[in-house]
């Protein structure tokens, strides 16, 4: 996914407020819900005839139906987003908010692709591996990919550890091709 510099500024500004209010998780849930609402009725929220105040009012009503309330900062944030017609960046803002939140906790975001649900022992070993290189605890974004057959693929801060059967087979094929070119 490509990220926008503008989305980064919105995400950092909202995170700064969330940190100050000690409500990072609450604000992340707020962004999740707003993204779901926006994406489910994109045509309505992208309609230029509908005023930003009405759009925010609709979002507030839908949030109330889920038992959620919007605080004044969240409302001002959404007002700014809709007034400046940046609502298409909401998913980007949410992803960058989570990324910046992880960094603010002195942790490192890491992608983990694995063929099966990881066991605690596997996660512990992978955490140790990541800590060895970046001296910070990882926060894994885990995705299950059965095509990997076995093993795990971990990516963080430019590092890539591929212990999958699929990765090993590709490596063997590359080496065989190199040997074939040399002879």
TrEMBL record:
Q: Which GO terms describe its cellular component?
A: plasma membrane; proton-transporting ATP synthase complex
Give the location in the cell: Cell inner membrane; Membrane
Picking any one GO molecular function of the record gives: proton-transporting ATP synthase activity, rotational mechanism
Entry membrane topology: Peripheral membrane protein
Task: Cite the Pfam families for this sequence.
Answer: OSCP
Task: Output the NCBIfam families linked to this UniProt entry.
Answer: ATP_synt_delta, PRK13441.1
Q: What does this protein do?
A: This protein is part of the stalk that links CF(0) to CF(1). It either transmits conformational changes from CF(0) to CF(1) or is implicated in proton conduction. F(1)F(0) ATP synthase produces ATP from ADP in the presence of a proton or sodium gradient. F-type ATPases consist of two structural domains, F(1) containing the extramembraneous catalytic core and F(0) containing the membrane proton channel, linked together by a central stalk and a peripheral stalk. During catalysis, ATP synthesis in the catalytic domain of F(1) is coupled via a rotary mechanism of the central stalk subunits to proton translocation.
**Name of the protein:** ATP synthase subunit delta
Name the species this protein comes from.
Answer: Thermotoga petrophila (strain ATCC BAA-489 / DSM 13996 / JCM 10882 / RKU-10) (Thermotoga naphthophila)
């Amino acid at each position: 996914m490509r990220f926008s510099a503008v989305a980064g500024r919105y995400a950092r500004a909202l995170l700064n407020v969330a940190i100050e209010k000690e409500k990072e998780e609450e604000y992340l849930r707020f962004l999740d819900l707003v993204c779901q609402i926006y994406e489910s009725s994109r045509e309505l929220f992208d309609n230029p005839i509908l005023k930003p105040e009405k759009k925010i009012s609709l979002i507030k009503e839908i949030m109330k139906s889920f038992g959620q309330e919007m605080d004044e900062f969240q409302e001002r944030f959404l007002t700014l987003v809709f007034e400046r017609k940046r609502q298409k960046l909401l998913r980007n803002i949410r992803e960058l908010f989570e990324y910046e939140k992880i960094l603010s906790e002195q942790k490192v975001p890491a992608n983990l692709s694995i063929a099966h649900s990881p066991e605690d022992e596997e996660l512990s070993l992978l955490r140790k591996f990541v800590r060895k290189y970046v001296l910070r605890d990882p926060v894994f974004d885990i995705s299950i990919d059965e095509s990997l057959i076995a093993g795990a693929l971990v990516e963080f801060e430019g590092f890539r550890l591929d212990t999958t059967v699929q990765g090993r087979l590709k490596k063997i094929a590359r080496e065989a091709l190199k040997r074939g070119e040399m002879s």
